[in-house]
Write a structure and sequence with these properties.
This protein is α+β, with helices and mostly antiparallel strands. The protein is 17% helix and 49% strand. The N terminus is likely disordered. Keywords: Signal.
């Protein structure tokens, strides 16, 4: 029963990730301001999501699962997103991921993430390390800090990477563990090829963009069955981002 439940949820998450797949393929150029706005929002989209309470896993703890994030890219002026997707931008960019975390001594957890959006050229790699300042108890909340790194791969026209830091707090009640946090990401974005040179129609030569982007997030982890956790999270960082994760953890 538990295995069937987890497999069904994983397939549902992966199907959602395939719902609006597109290649990032610039067929027209960008102005520098458009490139900066696109870099800010794309950097926020590929950044490492929290999707976990602040409490550490513990030295024997392990967490592995699948996650999908939905990024609203149609709200407001999305002209640069249309250009990024060859005039065929979806309303939401869905990013499915495989994630693992391992507990270490002294309240430290490490993790890794890989994403491939099916039928597109979008791939993302990432890693995280977190430290529990307060591990939490039946009466007190957990408090943790975290550092992350992500990098976009597969897109010839764009080199994009992020470094993130954040702090979060959580407190468990029965099968529910709500959490919230704040932090920020450093985004390093550089155009490549014809996009950088400004030789695409309507384009100009583009300089590298380095951006600091704050973010806030809140979510809840639900443990409906032993060893199975479902986490839902909402984040705002340049754009609304909604995430759902299903994982086996112990």
């Amino acid at each position: 029963m538990r295995k069937q439940f987890f497999v069904a949820l994983c397939l549902g998450l992966l199907f959602a990730g395939n719902a609006a797949a597109r290649d990032i393929n610039f067929i027209t150029g960008l102005a520098q301001g458009e490139f900066k706005d696109l870099s800010k929002e794309a950097g926020a989209a590929i950044a490492y999501r929290n999707t976990a309470p602040a409490a550490p896993l513990g030295i024997t703890g392990f967490d592995a699962g699948v996650e999908v994030s939905a990024v609203d890219i149609k709200t407001g002026n999305q002209n640069y997103w249309e250009k990024a997707f060859g005039d065929k931008a979806p309303s939401f960019l869905y990013i499915p991921k495989i994630r693992v975390r391992k507990g270490l001594p002294f309240g430290i957890d490490v993790g890794a993430m890989y994403s491939y959006v099916p039928d597109s050229n979008i791939k993302i790699y990432g890693a995280e390390v977190s430290k529990a300042i307060l591990e939490g108890s039946a009466a007190t909340p957990a408090l943790g800090v975290r550092a992350t790194y992500t990098r976009l791969a597969g897109v010839n026209d764009l080199s994009l990477q992020t470094v993130g830091v954040d702090a979060s707090i959580s407190k468990g009640f029965l099968i529910f563990t709500p959490y919230a946090g704040v932090g920020g990401i450093w985004i390093d974005s550089e155009a490549k090829g014809a996009l950088k040179a400004g030789t695409l129609p309507g384009g100009i030569p583009l300089a590298e963009e380095k951006i600091w982007q704050p973010r806030g997030f809140a979510g809840i982890k639900i443990t409906p069955l032993p060893l199975i956790g479902i986490t839902a999270e909402a984040e705002y960082s340049a754009r609304p981002i909604y995430s759902l994760k299903a994982a086996v953890n112990f």
